[in-house]
Amino acid sequence: MRSERTQLQHEVDILSQRITQDVAGLKDELKGMFDDRKMAVRMERRNAENQIQELNYRITLKLSSEMRSEAEGLRWVLTRRTALALVFLVTMAITTLRFATYMEKKQEVERKRFAADMAAREREMLPDVPHAAQRSVGLEEGDNPALVSLG
Q1: Residue spans of the chain under pLDDT 70
Q2: pLDDT, tens only, 86-111
Q3: Is the CA virtual torsion 33, 35, 37, 40 positive or negative?
Q4: CA 71 to CA 2: how far, in whole Å?
Q5: Residue 83 in domain
Q6: C-beta neighbour count of 130 within 10 angstroms
Q7: pLDDT the model gives residue 101
Q8: How far apart are CA 79 and CA 85, in angstroms?
Q9: Residue 123 included in any domain
Q10: What pLDDT sits at residue 4?
Q11: What pLDDT is stored for residue 2 in this prediction?
Q12: Per the domain annotation, does 45 fall within a domain?
């Protein structure tokens, strides 16, 4: 019985060692699987981060190009409006100058007509005296030159 017991004890020890080795092996295998899964999760996270960064880069490029095109379009609109305003101002200035010149010429013509009418009236009033003599009439009589009308 002792020998059987010893033999059974020996078998239990061997089985115990085998179980301990199998458990240690399974433990190492499980640890390796967890490490592999951790590495896979890290790689997935890096890939996701890279995709997010790439998407952010594309969005940034698209927005900046759209902003540039919008700014360029606005610049062209402002340039056209400025050019039109300048053309309008130059046209108005030229028109104003022409109108002012026309009015000056018209006033000059009216002054000449008025002077001619006045001269004709003076001649009518003094038909026998030449026009140049009319101006000097007051001076020949000895009147004050400041009071004599020059026509």
Answers
A1: 126-151
A2: 999 999 999 999 999 999 999 999 99
A3: negative
A4: 101
A5: yes
A6: 9
A7: 95
A8: 10
A9: yes
A10: 87
A11: 87
A12: yes
Residue environment code for 96-107, b if the CB has 16+ CB neighbours within 10 A, otherwise e: eeeeeeeeeeee
- Predicted local confidence at residue 144, as pLDDT: 58
Query: Are the C-beta atoms of 151 and 120 separated by less than 8 Å?
Result: no
The three state secondary structure string of 7-24 is HHHHHHHHHHHHHHHHHH
In a domain, 120, yes or no: yes
* Rounded Cα gap, residues 65 and 69, in angstroms: 6
Residue in this structure with the two tokens 């078998």, named with its chain if needed: 11
Helix axes 2-125, 131-140, angle to 10 degrees: 80
| Domain count within the chain | 1
* pLDDT at residue 127, as a whole number: 55
> In Å, how far from its chain's centre is CA 56?
26
